[in-house]
Amino acid sequence: MLKRILEILTVICLATSIACSAQSPFIGQWRFDSSRSGTPDEMKVQSQGGNKYSFDFGGGAETIIADGTFQSGHEGTLLSAKQAAPDAWIVERKKDGRLMLRATWKLSSDGNMLTDYYREFGSDGSTLSLDYVYQRIGEGSGFAGDWQSIKETRNTPLLMEVKAYESDGLSFITPSQQRTQNVRFDDKDYSADGSIAGQGAALSGRRVDEQNLLITHKYKEKVTGTENVGLSSDRKTLTITLHYIGRDKPDVMVYQRQ
User: Fold this and answer.
1) How far is CA 46 from CA 69, 107, 137, in A?
2) Inter-residue contact 204 to 187 (CB < 8 Å)
3) What is the pTM of this model?
4) Diameter over CA atoms, the chain
5) pLDDT at position 38
6) For residue 199, what are the contacts with CB-CB under 8 A and spacing of at least 6?
7) 77-122, pLDDT tens digit by residue?
8) pLDDT, tens only, 182-208
9) 32, 118, 248, 250 from 155: Cα distances, Å
10) Model confidence over 6-26: pLDDT tens digits?
11) If DSSP codes are grouped into helix, strand and coil, which group holds residue 40?
């Protein structure tokens, strides 16, 4: 009899947990709204003399000869840059023989604006298409300089699905980026595989209130960034504001419910 009672209680608790997760107002299909979003970017290009340049896209400098050949870059990749015209460069990156991205840069006539036609190629054959417009900050000439984006246009639709995760968590799934972020909302640090975090990358989640979540990212126990996830009062708009340590402007990503 005791065993049967415990079994019943277990089923009731599990059903209750699933019901609570299913009632989360964040669950659903969401489409990225480029017109209401802002994902500022910065890149630095420095001339090292001759045809040698260093490129910093946010992960530290990579120095190569801009002659169109693929040379050693970050994280086992190969980076290439070449001048296609007096006012145009083509920048490409490969890994394991596969072309990962191609960026076609176009410089304005006064040299103060740079348009980046960015195309990223997924291993599944998909293509991510983004167009950036950058403005020169400070000194520099030609393509060399500190460039900060003032406009970002996403040409490829971005869809995100939010699903229940375990008893009190949520999964944020972005199929086109092959990315799933599982979050528990108990203020504890977890690694990417869901286990208790050690010294590597970790994240934690906290429910601020019914319509707002806070996700904190850490590396080696130091905070590297936060995500504020907010739901509109009519539950039709989801806004994710990403604050990265060391960056002044946050990324603001707005989604509409499908």
Assistant:
1) 18, 16, 13
2) yes
3) 0.68
4) 85
5) 86
6) 220, 221
7) 999 999 999 999 999 999 999 999 999 999 999 999 999 999 999 8
8) 999 999 999 866 667 666 789 999 999
9) 11, 10, 26, 21
10) 343 444 444 444 444 447 999
11) coil
Complete DSSP assignment for 92-146: EEEETTEEEEEEEEEE-TTSSEEEEEEEEE-TTS-EEEEEEEEEEESS--TT-EE
Can you list the domains of the chain with their CATH numbers? Answer: 43-154 (no CATH), 158-257 (2.40.128.20)
Angle made by CA atoms 34, 37, 42, in degrees to the nearest 5: 105
Residue appearing with tokens 């208790």: 196
Asked whether the beta carbons of 173 and 179 are under 8 A apart, the reply is yes
Residue the block writes with tokens 């040698």: 52
Tokens of 145: 């300089």
Give me 219's structure tokens.
Answer: 């590396």
pLDDT over 90 (residue 125)? no
